[in-house]
Structures are given as C-alpha cells and as structure tokens.
Amino acid sequence: MSDFHVDIQRVRANFGHAAASYEQHDALQREVQQLLLERLDFYLQQPERIIDVGAGTGRGSAMLKKRYAKAQLIAVDAALPMLHAAKAHTGWLKPFVRVCGEATALPLPDHSVDILHSNLCFQWIDDLSALFGECARVLKPGGMLLFSTFGPDTLRELRAAWASVDQHSHVSRFLDMHDVGDAMIAAGLRDPVLDVDRYTLTYSEPKALLRELKGLGATHADRGRERALTGKHHFQRMLAAYEAMRVDGRIPATWEVVTAHAWGPPPGQSRRGKDGGEIASFSLDSLRGSRRR
Length: 293
Known about the structure:
Rossmann fold, Malonyl-ACP_OMT, S-adenosylmethionine-dependent methyltransferase activity, seven-stranded mixed sheet, EC 2.1.1.197, alpha/beta, S-adenosyl-L-methionine, 9 strands
C-alpha cells in the first residue's frame, strides 16, 4: 500500500477556498455522479436516511433528495464554506440537512444509515481502515455504500512533467483499487464491487488545467509536498515538458476513476483488526439469556 499521508487541514482549506468557483469546473464530477446514481438501481428498498459524505456544494445531495423525496438526507462536508454554498441546492420543497464533519468520524449513531453516498471525496483520506470502519459502523445491516474515488493514474501527465524537472512531490497521489477493495473487506463490508474508468480531458494549455484544479480545490495536499515556493525557472521547465505531450493540438490530462458499492454487514459479522486478528461485535440484547445456569 502507498505510504503517502494527506494533510487534512490543507484539504479542508483548499476546498473551503474553492467553494465559490467549484461548480464552474466540475464537469467530470457531474459525469461520475451519474455513474453512482446508476448503481442505486441495485438498492430495492425505500431508504429512511441517506448521508452524502463529502457533499461539497450539494449538487449530488439534491439529486439524491429528488430520487428519495421521503428520506432524510444529510449532507456532510469538512469544509464549512462548501456547506454554505450547498444552501443554493436545498429548496423548501425538498430540503436536506447540512452538517460539518469528517468522513472518519461521522456524527451519526451505529447502524442508522440506509445509503451512504460519496462522490470523489474518499481520495483525500489516507486512513482507509478508519474510513471504511466508520462506513460499516453507521450503515444498517444490508444498507448500501456507494462511492467514487481517484486512482493512481490520475494526472499522470502532470506528474511526469514535474518529474522531468525535479524529484519533489508536486501532485497528489491516490490509492490503487486493490488497496481500496482490501480495506473494504477488512472493515467487514459485504460483497464489494469495484470498477475503473479512465477519462482524458483536454486543455488549451497546461495552465488551464492548473486553474481548473485550483478552482475545484483539488490541489496538492500530501504532507510530503515541497513547502518552499517553486521557482519561476522550475515552473517554466515543467510547462515546457507538458507542452511536449500535446495530442492533436491539445494538452491531455488523465483521470482514473474508481466507482464502487458494497453492503452493510449483518450484526456480529467479523472484521479484521489492525493486528490481523478477527473482531466481531454483538448487541447486548442478542446475548441476553445465553448464559447457562
């Protein structure tokens, strides 16, 4: 598994600063959102509570509320300015609740969520054990987890352009689908299904891609990133290296997108502990009367 570590405070600040500009640059996010909504066809019940983790400006939350009008919809995001922006998508006919919180510490009781949805948020969380353990905790038995995240091939051209200049970290790294799947199984989530799609977006120049990343809040947030200012000469060399990758007159940028779903574990299903052992939990009521006299 990759040893990268995400600077959570930097992620929160990046997305907070991008709240006003996010929807000017989110074409890919909208496309991936449609893929997630298609997976909801596998969910055959009427949910009572849905949580949208990393809800951002609330566009996906509004779509979920429209599909399940009678369900309670809770939009959770770590960046408060994003939740302020999400107010534009919560109407008085189909309102949803907005809560500031972290994906690894959801402010919800155990086994209280029917659908946990997250569109392109989980890539900013490096503790997959804590993340999916929390998903398994809040999901009802048989509840549905569906999410998307970026894979390691994302922005490979930009990464290669920087690598031709120096060996410092300039582009965020993302975990492989197999690491994500292993972490889901270790948390006790049932029957995970993961798929990978690759998108190539094109730009008039490398700076247009950089402006889009900044507008989305998706800028470099690894703790190991270079903290000193990048010199103008270094930056120009990177741009020149990226220019050499033009295809049909356009600058390509690859986005590797993992989409997945799984199901909440039944009561007592074991999960893998950090020491490699198996952990199972049962409610107290399920144990009443089991003691022999």
